[in-house]
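Researcher: Sequence recovery benchmark, item below. Answer with residues only.
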C-alpha cells in the first residue's frame, strides 16, 4: 500500500500535489513564509495552551525546518 502524500509546507496528509488547501493562496500558489509562519504558530499555541507565544514561535521554526518547502528559508537559519 502506497503511503499518503504530505503537504511539503505543513505535513498535513493530502490526496495529491505538493501543498494542502491551507498552505496555498487563491491561485494555488504557496503562501509567503510570513503568512504560513503566523498561521502555524497560532495553531501551535491553540493546540498546546501551555505554550507562550515565544515558545510557540520557536516550536514552529523547529518544525518548519523539517518541511521541504521551508528547510532552506533564510528566516530559519538560526
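Model:
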Amino acid at each position: 500500500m502506497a503511503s499518503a502524500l504530505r503537504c511539503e509546507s505543513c505535513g498535513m496528509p493530502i490526496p495529491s500535489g505538493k501543498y494542502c488547501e491551507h498552505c496555498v493562496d487563491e491561485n494555488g500558489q504557496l503562501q509567503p513564509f510570513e503568512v504560513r509562519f503566523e498561521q502555524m504558530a497560532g495553531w501551535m499555541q491553540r493546540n498546546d495552551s501551555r505554550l507562550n507565544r515565544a515558545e510557540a514561535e520557536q516550536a514552529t521554526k523547529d518544525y518548519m525546518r523539517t518541511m521541504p518547502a521551508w528547510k532552506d528559508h533564510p528566516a530559519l537559519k538560526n
